[in-house]
Design goal:
Layout (H helix, E strand, L loop, with lengths): L4 H16 L3 H8 L3 H10 L51 E5 L3 E5 L5 H12 L3
Antiparallel strand pairs: 1-2
Length: 128
Amino acid sequence: MAQSSREIYWSAILADFRRSGMTHVQFCSARRISLHSFRTWLYRLRPGLPPRRPRAPRTSPPPSVADSPAFLPVHVRTGPPAVAAVAPLIAPAPPLELVVDDRYHLRVPAGFDPASLHRLLDALERRP
């Protein structure tokens, strides 16, 4: 069977690759060749594989648009989102408590903003 012009082109490229000593990625990068196309032809023209048979023409027409839907139906619900009734896996961290003499008793929640706490303490102590 005669080779097509594409097969001759890729056979020459693959021969260059085998002589190069490079990896697939290095060779394709240096030659600016698509790695996907390179590997497709590398497999397709591998020695020892039987030649590809030409595809037989289709006997049935392709499926029409009406046969297979292009989109799936979407249902939009109005109202609040459903809340999962699953207990949290990790218990929230208890708040920090800061007691300064009898004057102040601060309860700081987990995940607080440290800068805000500094400003609050500065204001309570009337620091400059």
